Amino acid sequence: MDLNFYRFRSVWLLGVGPRSVYEVLARFEDYPGWWPEVRRIRLVGEESCEVTCRSALPYDLTFVLRPTRRDPDVGVLEASMTGDLEGFSRWRISEHLSGSRLVFEEEVTAHKRLLRRLAPVARPAFRANHAIMMRHARSGLEAHLAGPRVDAIAR
Questions:
Q1: Domain-located, residue 40
Q2: What residue numbers bound the domain in which 130 lies?
Q3: Could you give the CA distance from residue 119 to residue 123 in angstroms, rounded to a whole number?
């Protein structure tokens, strides 16, 4: 087993239609506004961007994200990743009752030296770190999709 290979999967149900969710997820440059662990997005090409993330553990991960599939008709967003992480991430968005079902999948190999050295003992902490990041992503996305709250506008 390669201790530096990670496979993640999250499934969320949201009370917003798939098209609205897709439109938000397709705008990578806006992720720092609703996903707290996405610290910085810097465009490095026509569609590519350099992403810097940091969750609960004290290290940054920086990688280049390149869209490989954008299909709003079937609700798929997929991107390749190179840098501290190499692999892919994918959002699949579909209708579900009165909202959407989101499936986030990611398969990556960690190339950051710190993670590779600590993997034999810290792999469970790295996986927990990712779980925290995904919990925050879900709540941030839900809040973003809901728009500004009435009490916040009144202030």
A1: yes
A2: 5-146
A3: 5
Q: What is the CATH number of the domain that holds 77?
A: 3.30.530.20
The pLDDT tens digits for 31-44 are 999 999 999 999 99
Residue whose token pair is 């465009």: 43
Q: In what order do the strands lie in the sheet containing 99-110? A: 5-14, 99-110, 85-96, 76-83, 61-71, 49-53, 38-43
| Number of domains the chain contains | 1
Cβ burial of 101 (10 Å; 0-12, 13-18, 19+) is middle
Q: Tokens for 22, please give them.
A: 């897709």
Q: What is the average pLDDT across 11-19?
A: 96
d(CA 33, CA 143): 11
